[in-house]
Amino acid sequence: MNDAEIIARLRRASPRFESWWRSTTDASPDGEPPALADALTDLAIVIDQLLDRDKRGELPALLAVVEQAYGCGTNEQRLLVRRHVLEALRESCALTGASSRPLEALLGPECRAAWADVANARTGRSVPAPNLLT
């Protein structure tokens, strides 16, 4: 799955993400292709919002796309998901004092394992993170 396909799947999975992404890309220079890193940064913001109020049940569908992108993606895509989604959400939970358990319960197995690695890295535990660049 290429970057554009991941973005398209995220847009189809969530009206809120679609709206957020459209407002972001409308402000981008014309002709510039959408960047997966930008989409994932926006996604983390949308997921954070949906954790508080997901009236349409969009969160499971979004996280299923994230799981697929992380589980089947290239090493670069996996690194982007880890950095721009998982690490950003972990940091948001830490800064706000919000429990990460509701999110953890919705993550797929690959993302849940990466989430644990991110948590261990934050706390200084010596659990090696996977080398995604090999």
Could you please describe the fold and organization of this structure?
The protein is mainly alpha-helical. It has one domain. It is 72% helix and 0% strand. It contains seven helices and no strands. Helix 1 crosses helix 2 and helix 3 (36-52) runs parallel beside helix 5. It is globular and about 40 Å long.
Salient structural properties:
globular; single chain; 134 residues
* Count of distinct structural domains: 1
- Indicate the structural class: mainly alpha
SSE order: HHHHHHH
Task: Give the % helix.
Answer: over 70%
User: How would a crystallographer describe the biggest sheet?
Assistant: none
User: Measured on Cα atoms, how large is the radius of gyration?
Assistant: 15 Å
Overall 3D geometry? globular
Separation, N- and C-terminal Cα atoms: 19 Å
User: How many helix segments?
Assistant: 7
Indicate the low-confidence ranges by residue numbers. 126-131
Strand content is under 5%
- Nearest-integer average pLDDT: 87
DSSP E strands, number: 0
